[in-house]
Amino acid sequence: MFLIGLIIDALAPSFVILLLGRVIQGIATGIALPIVIALVAGIFLVKRTQKLAHPLLDLQLLKNKYFAASVLGFFLIQMCSLGNAFLIPNYVQLVNGNTAMVAGLLVLPAGLHWRFNGTDWWPLA
């Protein structure tokens, strides 16, 4: 399967077909199973909350386009922030071959920034 995805990637005339090749490669490496489980659980959550009289998570709030846009924006910002928080130290250690100390020192300025520029520190916030 991985070879099939690699061939599709090599011959892809468009981005959509390139993504198809990546999905096939993901299926071959076993990364697709957690994604499928998450999608099935998400579908189950939506179906279940629609049937309950008092759902734990009221999905009707997402019908407001401004609220839905702000939730999506927050989600994307968090994915970028947390993705960098996990990827940068691992990249520094595994790809560059540096120690955990170097990786920690590399991400230290970001932590200090959030500590002193966050709303918890500022007395007037």
Compile the SSE list and pairings:
Blueprint: H1 2-10, H2 15-29, H3 32-51, H4 65-95, H5 100-117
Helix pairs in contact: 1-2, 4-5
Membrane topology: Multi-pass membrane protein
Subcellular location: Cell membrane
GO cellular component, one term: plasma membrane
Describe the protein.
The chain is an all-alpha fold and 125 residues long. It has a domain of 61 residues. Helices cover 74% and strands 0% of the residues. The chain contains 5 helices and no strands. The protein is flat and about 55 Å long. The model has no long low-confidence stretch (mean pLDDT 77).
Brief overview, please?
It is found in: Cell membrane. This is Major facilitator superfamily (MFS) profile domain-containing protein. With about 120 residues, the protein is mainly α.
Strand portion: under 5%
Specify the overall morphology.
flat
Taking the sheet with the most strands, its summary is: none
Q: Averaging pLDDT over every residue, what do you get? A: 77
> In sequence order, what are the helices and strands, one letter per element?
HHHHH
Give the CA-CA distance, first to last residue: 54 Å
Give the low-confidence spans. Answer: none
Radius of gyration: 21 Å
Total helical segments: 5
Q: Which structural category fits the helices and strands?
A: mainly alpha
What's the total number of strands? Answer: 0
Helix content: over 70%
What key phrases describe this protein's structure?
125 residues, mainly alpha, 5 helices, 74% helix, 0% strand, flat
